[in-house]
Amino acid sequence: MFFRFSHSLSMKIKERVIKSILALSAFISIVTTLAIIGVLGRESFTFFLTVPVTDFLFGTHWEPLLEPKSFGILPLMAGTLLIVIGSGMIALPVGLLTAIYLSEYASNRTREIIKPILEILAGIPTVVYGYFALTFITPVIRIVLPQTQIFNGLSASIVVGIMILPMVASLCDDAIRSVPVTLRQGGYALGATPYELTKSVTVPAAFSGIIASFVLAISRAFGETMAVTLAAGATPNLTLNPLESIQTMTAYIVQVSLGDTPAGGIEYQTIFAVGGLLFIITLIMNIAANWIMNHYREVYE
Amino acid sequence: MVVNNPVLKIHNLNIRYGDSLAVKNCSVEIEKNKVTAIIGPSGCGKSTFLRTLNRMNDFIDSFSLDGQILFDGVDIYDRQSDPVDIRRRIGMVFQKPNPFPKTIYKNITWGPHINGYKGNFDNLVEGSLKGAALWDEVKDRLNESALSLSGGQQQRLCIARCIAMQPEVILMDEPASALDPKSTAHIEELITKLRKDYTIVIVTHNMQQAARVSDYTLFLYEGELIEYGITKNIFTKPDNQQTEDYITGRFG
Q: Residue A189: its chain B contacts at CB < 8 A?
């Protein structure tokens, strides 16, 4: 028998075109990333020609818009850390417990109700979360603790915690559910209760995934912008008191971007330096998360 | 068939997944300190039947059953019966070795530990590993990960983990089907040894294996109990034509 592949040439061209389109799509994100790094790098470089790096990293006053100017990032860093720690204290434990409940205890029906709700929570625009903090959480805090300022880190931390909670829950749930069912059965066959099984078999086996989800969530909290801009205030403040008005790195960038700061001046360049630092922090955290996931992945077979 | 000293008595058992009947009106008695093999073609309900005996099917939403499974005279599906307690007394070894990603030592001690074992753990580990014919191979590496063992060693570790609980019955779901011939021989040898202290129910699709290791054989076909009897009789002069067709390889 003899087959003649009469379409082979046009097929080859078609394959090549498809491949180019796919490669181009992948290329777009690479180019964008490189362009952002380029812009951040260039503007930060000019900034650091005037302001020494050590003054920037270790200075305790952030007053770039008023004379006498000072460019110490620590107050913004403290504000960001306050949000990260506060939101982490809420989202990490609650997210992990939610995941354990969903994967080990909840019936399929309960799961089918809770999962979409978590997805809705993850889909709410962050600016709405900011409003929610300002108009609901803050007044409630002020009833309990009247000395709380209108803009404060606590309210913003809570709302960022709620915001990253679905991400922690969903990633931890994935990690726990990826523990082989045979391992679970082995545990149950030895007379384990669900709690014992979770505590000493599934959660330890899913540990790397859980830690990676924590790191990703924290990295998200570092970069969170709208909610903290609205709820935490615009006062660079070297404090870890959650009841005071603060400013995060991201909120500062918003403030300058929205204001009438002329392009090209030192004030303008500050946002690139701050943005660059933020970029480096989140990049390191994402790399760390990936490294943990790959490095400590349990081998089951 | 009536046995002398039954440890499990199953009466009119029907097992369903949703609307489909997986095991039909099955009545069997399992004799103490003997090896009972369950054979039958794939999908005949033999694993379902086995897992029902220590309530491992409880995790499947669509699973339901009627009839009775009496263990020491108590119905294990009675509202009063605690599945956790039943699984302590009726252990299970699975098709694929499934040691925990922990040390060899901890694989053995975990079950007894969570169930409040008060004795000496070192002795327990040594005794269990010796019971599973694994001690000599691993005695110098008890603190290494169980995952560093070969497949056959892992399966023997799972048997050791099971006997560390001192169960009355051990259920084995095709325990050698994922292993090479040499490891299989090891496991079979072990089964014949374990019969002294435990009642063993083993599911296998390997008829030679059933013939080699078991005292009684139970043939299931499409969820129905076709024949149950002394292994030697089943394999030499079965009463039922279907049994004969199956063991001579005419189907299945």
A: 54, 56, 87, 91-92, 94, 162
Range of the domain at A183: 70-295
Q: B100, exposed or middle or buried, with CB in 10 Å at 0-12, 13-18, 19+?
A: buried
Kindly state whether residue B252 falls inside one of the protein's structural domains: no
CB burial readout B209-243, b (16+ within 10 A) else e: bbbbbbbbbbbbbebbbbbbbebeebbeebeeebb
- Check B111 against A191: CB less than 8 A apart: yes
Domain holding B108: CATH number? 3.40.50.300
In a domain, A300, yes or no: no
Tens of pLDDT, residue by residue, chain B (252 residues):
778 889 999 999 999 999 999 999 999 999 999 999 999 998 889 999 999 999 999 888 899 999 999 998 899 999 889 999 999 999 999 999 999 999 999 999 999 999 999 999 999 999 999 999 999 999 999 999 999 999 999 999 999 999 999 999 999 999 998 888 988 998 999 999 999 999 999 999 888 999 999 999 999 999 999 999 999 999 998 888 989 889 888 776
The tally of domains found in chain B comes to 1
Total domains in chain A come to 1
- pLDDT tens for A242-267 read 999 999 999 999 988 887 777 778 88
> What's the CATH code of the domain at A89?
1.10.3720.10
Q: Do A190 and B110 touch (CB under 8 A)?
A: yes
Q: Is the pLDDT of residue A54 over 80?
A: yes
In the block, residue with structure tokens 């079950």: B111
| Residue A148, domain member (yes or no) | yes
Is there a contact between B161 and A190 if contact means CB atoms under 8 Å apart? yes
Looking at the domain assignment, is residue B163 inside a domain? yes
* Mutate: best of B58, B62, B98, B110, partner A, most A CBs <10 A: B98
d(CA A249, CA A80): 6
Whether residue B226 is contained in a domain is answered as yes
Which residues make beta-bridge pairs with B28? B10
Tokens of A21: 């389109």
Q: Predicted ipTM?
A: 0.91
Q: Is A46 contained in some domain?
A: no
Contacts 24+ apart (CB under 8 A), B116-124: B124/B164
In a domain, B1, yes or no: no
Cis peptide, bond prior to residue A68, ω within 30 of zero: yes
pLDDT of residue A300: 47
pLDDT value, residue A2: 57
Q: Which chain A residues are closer than 8 Å to B162 by Cβ? A: 189-190
Residue A54 lies in a domain: no
* Residue B43 structural domain: 6-247
